[in-house]
Write the structure tokens for this entry.
Amino acid sequence: MACSWRYSRRVNSLPKVLFTLNVPREHLSPLDGVAELLLPNRHEWNALPKADLFSLLRDCEAFISQGEVRANAELLDAAPRLRMVANAAMGVDNLDLEELTRRGIQATNTPDAFAESTADLTLGLILSVTRRIAEGDRFIRTGEWGKLGMQPLRWEGSLVGGKTLGIIGYGRIAKLVEKRATAFGLNVIHTRQRNDDHPQCRSFKELLAESDLVVALVPLTDSTRHMIDAKALAAMKPGAVFINVARGKVMDEAAVVEALRSGQLAGAGFDVFEEEPVVHSALFEMDQVVMTPHLGGATEEERQIGRREAAEEVARFLRGEPVRNPVNEPKR
């Protein structure tokens, strides 16, 4: 069934801008008086059906998504008037930047909007893995606890206080994770693009060897793709814990599975996967693994901030002003 749509206003002289999910209109208030805003009148969580998306993009000069829409050649062919794509998200994996640039289409993201949320989730995954929180929740839901009674030795996890947390990358999210982790008594070390004399800075190799817990917090680039591979995993301490809240392709998922099977990794937490939303089937059977469906930035507060920032970028662009967070340099 085709979805219906609601319009913020019908002013034919204003450029049309599509937001691809049903969100409160006030989250996009920077577009008031600047654009004719199209919002879906559907309350489903899934992305828009392709046919509906392509049909509406035909007359749009810009669209905003939360990273669920792939801006590739097929989509751009269906949107001949498109001049801008704004991600209300940190990542740009869904944007074919080369194709957008070639066609003269500006692309932006919101790099700082979701840092606090992602840092919170990172600590949540660390605690859930080390204290077996998700595993314990699943056990209670089976009804087995009521049948078997207390089993004190069964649920021993490990303290995080006194352990070493190695953060791969040292951007804003990493700094917020460091602040939270320090409060839990963790010793935090990290890598940087350029090694310096900071006492907590390590080379990638040194960090892997020293850390009890390793967290990936780097963008996906040619140099970071599969940086957590079999070699890197073998360089970690036996029994280390690996957490990935960066991008799925930063890790070789099959190699991580083997490290979990062998015990080289004692546990892992993932908010991202190599071929989302497909997950390596072996992970479903591993109690020492905690998985979340790419919800790092998914808090009401920061989603609203991200939508507003994306709307502000579109408004600037439509007024002929420079955007603040460009991720490409389109030909004019």
